[in-house]
Specification:
Chain B: Pfam families: SBP_bac_8. The complex is a heterodimer of chains A (268) and B (357). Chain A is mainly α and 268 residues long. Chain A contains twelve helices and no strands. Chain A has one domain: MetI-like fold, CATH 1.10.3720. Chain A is 75% helix and 0% strand. Chain B has three domains: 30 residues; 166 residues, Periplasmic binding protein-like II (D-Maltodextrin-Binding Protein, domain 2), CATH 3.40.190; 146 residues, Periplasmic binding protein-like II (D-Maltodextrin-Binding Protein, domain 2), CATH 3.40.190.10. In chain B, helix 2 links the parallel strand 1 and strand 2. Classes of the chains: A mainly alpha (268), B alpha/beta (357).
Chain lengths: 268, 357
């Protein structure tokens, strides 16, 4: 088979990327220059830099940061313990299975659990703490998001830890490093790429969450994703929605660059 | 290359084969262009028995499809490629569809049952002379509350919502016009206000409501109120009726200062392939007995005067869902304020949502 015929096999991929990756991004960019009446304008960009949207951007980043932070705090020890268990793959599977369930179904389940008369409050009452409002708070929003993103963070970290050469740890111990130093100087730096990949997979979607902001946070948390949804579906101000999307895409590219892998071959 | 071409040919052949089979199946079941009718309606918004009765009586096959928002319906019809014969949009969506020239005029001569519709629901601002639309159901926006939880508040005034005792106890429906609307109503302004100063004033008043608001939600409001998640909710009468069926201890009221009067209406989109059958269907739905049967199933208020005779007396005399003419006079129908104004309403609503406790 010559190079020429090999090039033909690239056609489907090139078409795919052109139609479903490049074209949509260009379309988003194109729409962002039109106002609600369909006239060419930079008005949308000006509007993005008003306090309303800047505040929204800030709160999106803040919540995405919180979600990523807590996911990481829980995921790293979990992944670490997983590598120490006997039936690693089975445990890993059990952690991954919930992510097969539709996000919406899980969100509805949490409405029931966190509701005033839900299981969580029954438990609190039985413990003698008394009922509390859990649903529609910042806590419930971050909790449910962390729950949903957890498998995506555990997986890359688990892979990184699993690939770690055990003799490096032995060497560190033999040379007199305390367990803490071993972790700080050997294990963590060597799994950093897994951590970066995990943070990337969590932070980027967390930035544009929108269903959960309504179902779990009762629209008390407004992110850029919520605003995009509203502009496209309700206001039909596609230009403004596209403008916000442009900034989201820029933010995502920056995050990808910041957390991108520098060394190759560590990630799976 | 050869393999690629072969694969392409196989895909094409299989596709055409499937298309042929679908066609054959449709014909075998009687689904051809001439005697089918595609109805595009809100979910769970018609008694399925009525569809079978209509099919039996007329020999027309009905294909029933559903949507969950006016915007989704509009987009789908605008994009084309559909062949809906009947759609059931709300009043402001009809104005938009008229503007965009998506509707077919309705021939009143083909609707002998039209006089059964109460005259107060005909010839309204969004479609004068009912050129394009025939009322299907109607209702109001009001307050659903749990009398046991709110002390002696009765919500005859919108201002009762601002009562400090309701801290964190109010659910709002996620609609810009509804929420900004009751803010305007509480200041005795019109629901269709276009004066920006007044709109901002209403939004600022709503900001003070924030401590009382538990959540701003969509359709979940029905479930949340059934579970008594909150003591008070601002919502549409139709949802209120659903909740009341499940939980009788609640109460629904339309505050005196005024509120929204909404209509869902049957229209014939230009995409129709069978306008004849569409007229037959509309006329069938206008039949008093059928309209009554439908109202009993769906639970919303029917605009059909004749149907009221067939309905339960308690239902018809229920002022909450069949308010008298005097009350409906004080209510306002949404007007299409134009994209600009609607965007302004939505911006205010977004800012209101972002206002933290």
């Amino acid at each position: 088979m010559g190079t020429k015929s090999r090039n033909y096999y690239l056609i489907p991929y090139v078409l795919w990327i052109a139609l479903f990756v490049v074209a949509p991004i260009l379309l988003v960019l194109y729409y962002s220059f039109f106002n609600i009446e369909g006239h060419f304008t930079l008005e949308n960009y000006k509007k993005f830099f008003t306090p309303v949207y800047l505040k929204m951007t800030f709160s999106s980043f803040w919540y995405a940061f919180l979600i990523t932070f807590f996911t990481f705090i829980i995921a790293y020890p979990t992944a670490y313990l997983l590598t120490k268990t006997k039936h690693k793959q089975l445990w890993l599977l059990l952690i991954i299975v919930p992510s097969w369930i539709n996000l919406l179904l899980k969100a509805y389940a949490f409405i029931g659990i966190f509701g005033t008369y839900g299981a969580a409050n029954k438990f609190l009452e039985a413990m003698g703490v008394g009922g509390k409002q859990i649903l529609f708070t910042d806590f419930s929003f971050v909790f449910v998001s962390v729950y949903i993103f957890l498998p995506f963070m555990i997986l890359p970290i688990f892979n990184a830890l699993n690939d770690l050469n055990p003799s490096l740890i032995d060497a560190s111990n033999d040379l007199g490093a305390s367990p803490l130093t071993t972790f700080k100087r050997v294990i963590f730096p060597l799994t950093l790429d897994g951590v970066k990949a995990g943070c990337q997979i969590v932070f980027i979607p967390a930035l544009s969450l929108f269903m959960l902001t309504r179902l779990i946070a009762g629209n008390r948390v407004i992110t850029l994703g919520t605003a995009i949804e509203q502009h496209f579906l309700v206001t039909q101000d596609w230009g403004m929605g596209a403008t916000i999307a442009v900034f989201l895409i820029i933010a995502m590219v920056i995050i990808m660059l910041l957390t991108g892998k520098r060394k190759s071959g560590m990630l799976r | 290359m050869k393999q690629l071409v072969r694969a392409l040919v196989i895909v094409l052949v299989v596709s055409f084969g499937l298309l042929y089979i679908v066609n054959r199946l449709n014909t075998a079941q009687g689904y051809t262009g001439d005697n089918t009718l595609t109805v595009y309606n809100w979910g769970d918004y018609i008694d399925p028995d009525i569809i079978s009765q209509f099919e039996e009586e007329t020999g027309i096959k009905v294909i029933y499809e559903t949507f969950d928002s006016n915007e989704a319906m509009l987009t789908k019809i605008q994009q084309g490629g559909t062949s809906y014969d009947i759609a059931v949009p709300s009043e402001y969506a009809i104005e938009k569809m008229k503007e965009d020239d998506l509707l077919l005029p309705i021939d009143h001569e083909k609707l002998p049952n039209l006089p059964y519709i109460d005259s107060r629901f005909l010839d309204l601002s969004f479609d004068e002379k009912n050129e394009y639309s025939i009322p299907y159901f109607w209702g109001t926006v009001g307050v659903l509350y749990n009398p046991a939880e709110v002390g002696n508040l009765d919500f005859n005034k919108w201002d009762d919502l601002w009562d400090p005792s309701l801290k964190n106890d109010i659910l709002l429906v996620d609609g810009a016009r509804e929420v900004i609307g009751f803010g305007l109503n509480s200041l005795n302004y019109s629901l269709n206000e276009t004066n920006k100063d007044r709109l901002v004033e209403a939004k600022e008043k709503l900001d003070h409501l924030t401590p009382n608001i538990k959540a701003i939600v969509g359709d979940e409001i029905r479930l949340l109120m059934q579970n008594e998640e909150a003591a008070v909710a601002v919502l549409w009468s139709g949802i209120a009726q659903d909740v009341l069926w499940e939980n009788e201890s609640l109460e629904y009221v339309v505050p005196e200062e005024g509120s929204n009067l909404w209509f869902d209406n049957m229209v014939i989109p230009k995409t129709t392939k069978n306008p004849e059958a569409a007229h037959m269907f509309i006329n069938y739905m206008l039949d008093p007995e059928i309209a009554a049967q439908n109202a009993e199933y769906v639970g919303y208020s029917t605009p059909n005067k004749g149907a009221l005779n067939y309905l339960d007396e308690d239902t018809v005399n229920d002022e909450r869902f069949y308010p008298d003419e005097e009350t409906t006079e004080s209510l306002e129908v949404y007007e299409n304020l134009g994209k600009r104004m609607l965007a302004f309403y939505n911006d205010l609503f977004l800012q209101f949502k972002m206002h933290r406790k």
